[in-house]
Design a protein that fits this description.
heterodimer, A: 61% helix, B: 12% strand
Amino acid sequence: MGQAAVIRRLRPDDDEVFREIRRELKKSGLTRKRMQEILDEVRTEVWERRYGKLLR
Amino acid sequence: MASFFVDANTIISALRYFGNESRLLEHARRGLCDLVTNEHVREEVRRFLERQPGLSPARRGKAMSRLARRILVLPDPARTDLAAARGQVPDPRDLAVVVGFQQSGCDFLVTGDRELRKAVPRALTTRQALRRIEGELRAGDLPPDGG
């Protein structure tokens, strides 16, 4: 009684982590169009690296 | 409870925007649906995040580990299965997703890719997936909020 306790979370929960990431991505100016472009490049990279020779 | 195989565009949208895709992740956290993907998709997401200069390696790592808490990651399909499925989709880069979905036993594939939805009979938009989950919830077919 009479004592103030500060409760601090030692680890941010998932929502907080996702919110931070969303904020960072927004701050970087990542638009939906650019997101699709990068994803398209990444899909090619990953496919080539993992299965590229499969369908040649 | 419905299970959904999610592809990279769905996962990345959930990370970038607060909207339908992030709601889908939240539903998975609450135990209202199962979300599944495979190593191939996980690798696409990981590489996408690597291309974001604003995200530190630690932040990227956190993102991947938090996603893994909500999305079950299955091994990739065998190469022979992918080769056999050639022709099922116009873009061969989609084969790992389509065959992964078929082998996962999930009820639906959730993708933002319109062409892929046309090619796969049980493919849904995220909005359609949410409607299904929320419909089940209204019908009392799901456990109460597990937090």
